[in-house]
Amino acid sequence: MKKVIYMIGVVIVVVVVAFFVSRSLEEAPIEIIPVEKEVYVVASDISWPPFEWKDEAGNYVGFDLDVMRAIADLEGYEVEIKDIAFDSIIAGVVAGNYDIGASGFTITDKREEVIDFSEAYWKSDQAVLVREDSGLNMVTALKDGRSIGAQRGTTGADWIQTNLIDQGVDIELKLYETYPLAVLDLVNKNLDAVVQDEPASRISVAKEEAIGIAGILITGEEFGFLVQQGDPDGLLVKINKAMKELQASGEWDKLVTKYFGE
Fold this sequence. Notes:
Layout lengths: L1 H26 L11 E6 L8 E2 L5 E2 L1 H13 L2 E6 L2 H9 L5 E2 L7 H4 L2 E3 L4 E10 L15 E5 L3 H9 L8 E5 L2 H9 L5 E5 H10 L3 E13 L2 E3 L6 H15 L1 H10 L2
Parallel strand pairs: 1-4, 1-5, 8-9, 8-10
Antiparallel strand pairs: 2-3, 6-12, 7-10, 7-11
């Protein structure tokens, strides 16, 4: 009898201990420690000055890319920059093929459903580009019957779709792999207009005498660098902190002057 009572007591103790151990495991927060790398892969569409492009020597240059390099220097890691089609970058970051997307990405709710953004680093609106000899202004360039170009996957293309096509304006939207291809078609009279971010549009106008800016669409966009959702590598803290340091030191202003002349 004593043996039976003893065995029952042991079982009760084991059950109670197991209960409290399992409960403590359930309640204990799980801390995810980011695994730091020596080299992070930065995906960028190298076709869009002044933010990113390839110079005559074949070097990847531009505001976004110099900011990425400066942040890497401050935070003690290296970056490998890869030239990736704009509309493939987010999918690649989501899949873990690239660590950072740096290509003039506007921060939008739709994009934030699948990735995470840094703090905003640039503000922009959209510009309407037309040929100087077309006689078009910002209103007539966006009317029925016009052919309007934009880069695939951009907020410029989204603006045309949402504010013109979805509102019943009978225009043709032509999508391009890069904005320079859209601008070239505009110069060659295959388009009536191009809708593109204002800073890049000013560079396009400076390079092509045949085109001009008909007007600015006030969209109030902000650019951010993007990483995988949940930021598994802990990059956003580094990026945001380093951007503040660059701004405080004056290095940020030097890059702005270098690429935008402001």
